[in-house]
């Protein structure tokens, strides 16, 4: 995990990407960037990490990615790749050792369809805590989230596998994991009470080396999200 402080507007641009490495532009607490960090770690890819202040982005970063989003990858040849699923697919293709995506076109399509479904779930992890903070009744949103999580549970039951792509971790597990890692932070852990297989999946994921290498403590997450919600995100919290 990178312990580098974030680069903000006015900071000097980093030097060229070293040969034999790939560069990740990231933010330490971003779940989308964590997807890419998980893949880099799982595949043992040599990389350096530049953390970006997402509230006050350096101009040189916006030249690389006009959307100003993390994760963004940069190669020694100056090629730039962004959007978390795209960066992860790229890494799996360019570094073929320990493939995370299935080899069959249908297997790949299944994982992408599942990811598409999961993208409809992630907004709940933000809507519910924000609604709660604003004094809204979030019981209906929680019921919807529980229903969506029960479908993921059903998927594991039907497949009779330990993970979503089989009995070992594949890309889809890493793509979904960052939001489950934050369940306790968002005070949503109880939403797994009726999903025993999904709960077992989260426990198995916690034993994974890449997950261990990229995670923060609940206290660190909570402290960061407090600064985020207050509108003054401390991207360097804990350094």
From TrEMBL:
Membrane-traversing stretches: none
Lineage start: Eukaryota, Metazoa, Chordata, Craniata, Vertebrata
Reactions catalysed: methylarsonate + 2 glutathione + H(+) = methylarsonous acid + glutathione disulfide + H2O; RX + glutathione = an S-substituted glutathione + a halide anion + H(+); L-dehydroascorbate + 2 glutathione = glutathione disulfide + L-ascorbate
Protein name: Glutathione S-transferase omega
Biological process annotations from GO: glutathione metabolic process
Homology family: Belongs to the GST superfamily. Omega family.
Function: Exhibits glutathione-dependent thiol transferase activity. Has high dehydroascorbate reductase activity and may contribute to the recycling of ascorbic acid. Participates in the biotransformation of inorganic arsenic and reduces monomethylarsonic acid (MMA).
InterPro entries recorded: Glutathione-S-Trfase_C-like, Glutathione-S-Trfase_C_sf, Glutathione_S-Trfase, Glutathione_S-Trfase_N, GST_C, GST_omega, GST_Omega/HSP26, Omega/Tau-like
GO cellular component, one term: cytoplasm
Source organism of this protein record: Sander lucioperca (Pike-perch)
Listed PROSITE patterns: GST_CTER, GST_NTER
Domain GST C-terminal: 104-229
The protein's Enzyme Commission number: 1.20.4.2, 1.8.5.1, 2.5.1.18
Keywords from the UniProt entry: Oxidoreductase, Transferase
The organism's place on the tree of life at top rank: Eukaryota
Gene3D superfamilies in alphabetical order: 1.20.1050.10, Glutaredoxin (3.40.30.10)
Encoding gene, per UniProt annotation: LOC116055245
UniProt domain GST N-terminal: residue ranges: 20-99
GO MF annotation terms: glutathione dehydrogenase (ascorbate) activity; glutathione transferase activity; methylarsonate reductase activity
Coiled coil: none
CDD domains named among the record's database cross-references: GST_C_Omega (cd03184), GST_N_Omega (cd03055)
């Amino acid at each position: 995990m990178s312990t580098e402080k974030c680069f903000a507007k006015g900071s000097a641009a980093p030097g060229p990407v070293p040969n034999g490495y790939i560069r990740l532009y990231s933010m330490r607490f971003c779940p989308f960037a964590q997807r890419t960090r998980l893949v880099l770690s799982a595949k043992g890819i040599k990389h350096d990490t530049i953390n970006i202040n997402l509230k006050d982005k350096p101009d040189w970063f916006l030249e690389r990615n006009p959307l100003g989003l993390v994760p963004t990858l940069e190669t020694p040849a100056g090629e730039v790749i962004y959007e978390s699923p795209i960066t992860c697919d790229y890494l799996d293709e360019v570094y073929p050792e320990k493939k995370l995506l299935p080899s069959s076109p249908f297997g790949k399509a299944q994982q992408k369809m599942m990811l598409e479904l999961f993208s409809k779930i992630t907004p709940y992890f933000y809507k519910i805590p924000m609604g709660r903070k604003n004094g809204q009744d979030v019981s209906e949103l929680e019921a919807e989230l529980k229903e969506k999580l029960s479908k993921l549970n059903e998927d594991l039951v039907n497949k009779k596998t330990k993970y979503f792509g089989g009995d070992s971790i594949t890309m889809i597990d890493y793509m979904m994991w960052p939001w489950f890692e934050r369940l306790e932070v968002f005070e949503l852990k109880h939403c797994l009470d009726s999903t025993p297989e999904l709960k077992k999946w989260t426990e198995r994921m916690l034993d994974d080396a890449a997950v261990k290498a990229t995670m923060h403590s609940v206290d660190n997450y909570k402290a960061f999200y407090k600064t985020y919600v207050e509108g003054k995100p401390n991207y360097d919290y804990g350094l």
